[in-house]
Amino acid sequence: MSQDEHKPGLWSRFSSGQAKQKLLAFASLIALILIFTALKPEAFMTQDNIIGILQSTTVIGVLAIASTFIIITSGIDLSVGVLMTFCAVMGGVFLVNLGWPLPLGVLGAIVVGALTGCVSGLAITKLKVPPFIATLGMMMLLKGMSLLITNARPIYFNDIEGFDQIALGSVIGDIFPALIIPNGVLIMFVMAVVCAVILNRTALGRYTFALGSNEEAVRLSGVDVNRWKVIIYTFSGGICGVAGLLIASRLNSAQPALGQGYELDAIAAVVIGGTSLSGGVGTILGTIIGAFIMSVLINGLRIMSVAQEWQMVLTGLIIILAVYTDNLRRDKK
User: Fold this and answer.
1) In a domain, 4, yes or no
2) Of the candidates 123, 136, 276, which has an alpha carbon nearest to the alpha carbon of residue 208?
3) Residue 1: inside a domain
4) Tens of pLDDT along 116-154?
5) Closest C-alpha to 185, from 283, 26, 1, 62
6) How many separate domains does the chain show?
7) Which domain holds residue 230?
8) d(CA 323, CA 306)
């Protein structure tokens, strides 16, 4: 398989259509900020609210990064939100119940996420279960396990020194007091940069795009498609483990009933950012922009006292519109 054949979809990733999609997403983000600023200037453009938007984006953003890899392969993972919760719960078990040191407990939670992603990948590749069904089943399984392990009670990290600083501390603020950026936001951006490099500069990224562009051609080229799918789901699961640590640190607790519904926000962020549900096309930058759009929209609607039910309605409409736009873009190509 030649170097160029390793990169199906290369031109489409850098096509004018992709650039226009990201530009449109960024323009939509700016428009939302201007609209909510005009409607509620005393509430929206405050330091506390801006920090709140940044903090809420960290979780959606990291989950969306994990979903980006899966969706580019033309797969889907409905378990990312509940997997995040399960990793938070297991982090609580390691740190609080078993008394592990902080670094080891953090690593353990990420490893649990990776192993769970690996199981999903094996179910899809070895058992031939469709990704939608496999991850839906994993979502229900993990939700039940989180409730069983905790007896449906939260695990609090009050006695774990430094755990809350993972998301709420500010390394940058300690150096530049006027620039208070929570560590969780810094972690999200670092992960975005690292994952963008992996997606565009490594074999993992090349095969991620290849599987979404033409899986059968990749298989006929002698590539072990199943192996790479399992690796991608494992990698995505590890990223969900990071999201679990961030939300647990932010709440200073592992809430076993939390998580379901986050997968919709993550998928919406990915699709809004220009990743095609048909696979083969997507960028991490677009995903991060999409995550900020979701966070600003949800935050703005709450400030406007819009009922949560209508927030869900609008989220669903946005997903449908984003998919419709993606279909129009593919039809033009």
Assistant:
1) no
2) 276
3) no
4) 999 999 999 999 999 999 999 999 999 999 999 999 999
5) 62
6) 1
7) 10-332
8) 25
